[in-house]
Amino acid sequence: MANRRYPAALLLLLPALTAAQTDTRVDFGHLSNGGAVAVGETLARQRLRLTLPCTGPCDPDGISLLPRGEVLSQDAPRRRYRLGSPIAGLAIDIALETAPLGADALQLEAEIALIKRGGRTEGGEISLHTPLVSLMETRDGRRQKAGDIYVSGTLELAACEVVSNALTFHLPSLPYVALRSSPLARPVEEGKSQRTLLLRCDGGVSTELTMTFSALNAATPPWLLPAQEDAAVGFMVKEGLSDSWVQWNSERYSLALTVPESGTLEVPFTAYYVRLGERPHSGSVSAKGQYTVVYR
Fold first, then answer.
1. pLDDT tens track for 35-48
2. InterPro entries recorded for this chain (predicted)?
3. pLDDT per residue as tens digits for the range 159-182
4. What is the C-alpha separation between 67 and 267, in angstroms, rounded?
5. In terms of pTM, does the model score above 0.85?
6. Is there a single domain that holds both residue 86 and residue 29?
7. I need a surface site. Which of 155, 207, 235, 284 has the fewest CB within 10 A?
8. Would you give the distance in Å from CA 17 to the centre of its chain?
9. If we measure between CA atoms, which residue out of 235, 123, 211, 204 comes closest to residue 162?
């Protein structure tokens, strides 16, 4: 068999110079919406200190940031950014400083802050699915990734408390003839009384207010509330923000609200007499109900 000859070949195995990648995760945990924090001020802040091995001579100026999301502003080239976040009304600031750490490593210090971006803030979550920025190393004119920085946290919605717990209406005396001559099951304008439900919340936050009303002696239709002393006399209550009649059958209805920056939210109510029967009696009348307020 004839000998076969192959062309001579030279195979060079060259080392691939790549940065040792470092992934860092920053968790801000659960945060309140910071109603006392003004626009542009810091809601939370964390400072990182990282050690990055050098793949050659250490060059502090060769490390930079590569944003992985919406860039709102940039103060220093590739070193200081304000970035958007998944949470409406919230921005993320990141600033990077570097310094040599011996002959074969760099010390990186990064400050990450959550900033209130606008007057309207919503709750939500910043997840670890996508990095905030990538750490980039420039060497011999080439820019390569040295690691990623991830940020996570949860911003809770407005925390509210009811300041005026009881809605007590003291209706003035109503002449018997005014009630007797009023249409059946219709509110009587004379003798009405107004009260305000006062809430104190974190300001500048979107929230949904769900209200539920109930009463043991609720009638049909459910916006009529008979008096305990006389079934021929009762009351109707109107909620002022939605301009709707309170229903006493535990049916829920929601109000989409934005809490003002002052943190004070007022929900007005007006109570009216109503004739429910043909022969109402004179004398004092009263009724009791219960309300529940839920914030989301």
1. 556 678 888 899 98
2. Adhesion_dom_fimbrial, Adhesion_dom_fimbrial_sf, Adhesion_dom_sf, Bact_Fimbrial_Adh_Pro
3. 677 777 678 999 999 998 899 899
4. 44
5. no
6. yes
7. 284
8. 45
9. 211
Mean pLDDT of the chain: 80
**Which amino acid is present at 291?**
Y
Alpha carbon dihedral 253, 255, 256, 258, in 10-degree steps, equals -150
pLDDT at residue 206 tops 60 = no
Residue at which a domain ends, from 98, 131, 155:
155
Q: How many Cα neighbours within 13 Å face the side chain of 61?
A: 2
Query: Considering 124, 155, 186, which residue would you say is the last residue of a domain?
Result: 155
15 in any annotated domain: no
Contact 233, 176 (CB under 8 A): no
Claim to verify: residue 245 and residue 283 sit in the same structural domain: yes
CA distances from 46 to 18, 62, 95 (A): 29, 24, 11
What CATH number is given to the structural domain containing 95? Answer: 2.60.40.3310
Look up tokens 């996570």; give the residue. 152
Question: pLDDT digits over 100-128, tens only?
Answer: 777 778 888 899 999 888 756 667 788 87
Question: Same domain, yes or no, for 174 and 71?
Answer: no
Can you read off the two tokens belonging to residue 84?
A: 């958007």
Q: Which of 135-144, 190-199, 214-223 has the highest mean pLDDT?
A: 190-199
2 has pLDDT over 90: no
Based on the domain organization, do 189 and 92 belong to the same domain? no
Q: What is the b/e burial string over 214-235, where b = at least 16 CB atoms within 10 angstroms of the residue's CB?
A: ebeebbeebbbbbbeebebbbb
Q: Are residues 184 and 112 in the same domain?
A: no
Tally of domains in the chain: 2
* Residues 279/280/282/286 CA torsion (nearest 10 deg): 160
Both 187 and 145 in a single domain? no
38 with 104, same domain: the answer is: yes
What are the residues facing 267 on neighbouring strands?
Answer: 197
